[in-house]
Design a protein that fits this description.
Structural class: alpha/beta
Radius of gyration: 22 Å
Shape: elongated
Helix content: 40-55%
Distance between the termini: 41 Å
Order of helices and strands: HEHEHEHEHEEEHHHH
Strand order of the largest sheet: 3-4-7-6-5
């Protein structure tokens, strides 16, 4: 698992749920620590590649997996990018280096390197969920679009008070969307008591 941001955590959690032995590669020390404290091994890419059967990138950067990394992988390892266009895996370099390329099935190309080493590249290095499947499920898209719509309304209503800048989505909007989604799942949450709210807003009580 290359990258342990929100996308990487989700993929890693799903993989661990299926019984996979997940290894994370990360350059951000805080995210690397998050992975370690979540019980996931953290290694540099070149070391993790040597024991990888499946590599998923979710970094938002380019050249995360290079041909040199691919050469260290198990024969028949699978490569997929779920982070950023078709640049996270060095697809062009892999294609130039391979002595043979064939589709073993739709959206799955086997690349054979000069030494006979093979890797399977999914969706030509693009996001498999969008390029080779049905994209985001409705349960994700409805929250995304609802948040975007409410954020646009917020910008229109508050345009005169906002400086030109990138503004985070207000927590009130995120809470509104989350409550609506929870209601759709028939999930009920707890609520703070007035005394609890007072305590959380105070610095006078406690150590």
């Amino acid at each position: 698992m290359a990258g342990y941001g929100w996308c990487g955590r989700g993929v890693a959690a799903r993989a661990r749920g299926t019984g996979a032995d997940v290894v994370v590669t990360e350059v951000d020390p805080v995210r690397a620590l998050d992975a370690e404290l979540d019980g996931v091994r953290v290694l540099p890419v070149h070391r993790a590649a040597a024991e990888a059967d499946l590599v998923v990138t979710t970094t938002g950067n380019r050249d995360v997996v290079t041909v040199e990394h691919v050469r260290r992988m198990e024969d028949g390892a699978i490569l997929a990018s779920s982070g950023h266009f078709d640049l996270e895996i060095a697809v062009d370099d892999l294609t130039r280096t391979a002595v043979r390329r064939r589709f073993v099935r739709e959206n799955c190309a086997e690349h054979t390197l000069p030494e006979g080493h093979r890797v399977l590249l999914l969706a030509e290095g693009r996001l498999p969920g969008q390029a080779a499947a049905e994209a985001h499920p409705a349960e994700v898209v409805d929250m995304t679009f609802a948040t975007q719509a409410l954020a646009v309304r917020y910008l229109v209503e508050n345009a005169g008070e906002l400086d030109p800048a990138v503004h985070p989505v207000p927590k009130e909007i995120e809470d509104e969307v989350a409550r609506a989604e929870l209601a759709a799942y028939d999930v009920t949450t707890g609520e703070l008591t007035p005394r609890q709210r007072e305590y959380l807003a105070s610095w006078r009580i406690g150590t």
